[in-house]
Amino acid sequence: MPENNNILILGIGNILLRDEGVGVRIIEYLQTQPIPPEVELRDGGTAGFDLLDIIADRKAIILIDAIDAGHPPATVVRFAPQDMEPANAPQLSVHNIDFAQALKMASLLKCAPQEVVIFGVQPASIEPGLELTETLAPLVPKIAALVLAELDRLLGK
């Protein structure tokens, strides 16, 4: 297990509900790309509080997940944890709410990540199915490129 002082790219979502699994599918794509050794890729599935140990004491986290922000399907929204506060939050799925709570718990325990960036992707469908929709599937490399650009920023490149 690597020390938790590196950067974590975390994809969460339910792959049984088509586009709800976009975060996990992007992690699968990124696993085929060259990633620096100080960066960990993690499929977080639908875990919430279970992620506390994984996110604790990280330098930075890039989170990718499906969100319902009322945008057209495949819209990507970049935001920060403070944007998840109830007054500002896009409608997040249950596991995202757990992620927000896990971040708050990490803060209370004084082991919160130094920086968290969230990429939310508006799903086209969250109906049962194992594949991303025809709307989102072709965009996985483009969304991954946004994540990698954010990673370059975090690494000072």
Structure description:
By secondary structure, the protein is an alpha/beta fold. The protein has one domain (7-155): Rossmann fold (3-Layer(aba) Sandwich). It contains 4 helices and 6 strands. Strands 1, 2, 3, 4, 5 and 6 form a 6-stranded mixed β-sheet that branches. β1, α1 and β2 (39-45) form a beta-alpha-beta unit. α1 packs across α4 (140-155). The protein is globular and about 40 Å long. Residues 91-97 have low confidence and may be disordered.
Topology summary:
Elements lengths: L6 E6 L9 H9 L8 E7 L6 H4 L4 E9 L7 E4 L11 E2 L1 H15 L6 E7 L18 H16 L2
Parallel strand pairs: 1-2, 1-3, 3-6
Antiparallel strand pairs: 3-5, 4-6
Helix pairs in contact: 1-4
The end-to-end distance, rounded to whole angstroms, is: 26 Å
Shape: globular
The CATH superfamily turns out to be HybD-like
What name does CATH use for the topology? Answer: Rossmann fold
What is the H-and-E element order?
A: EHEHEEEHEH
Overall radius of gyration: 14 Å
Specify the helix fraction band. Answer: 25-40%
Mean pLDDT: 87
Structure annotation, total helices: 4
Ranges where pLDDT stays below 50 over 5 or more residues in a row are: 91-97
Can you identify the CATH class? Alpha Beta
Strand content: 15-25%
Secondary-structure content class: alpha/beta
- The tally of domains stands at 1
CATH architecture classification name: 3-Layer(aba) Sandwich
Number of strands: 6
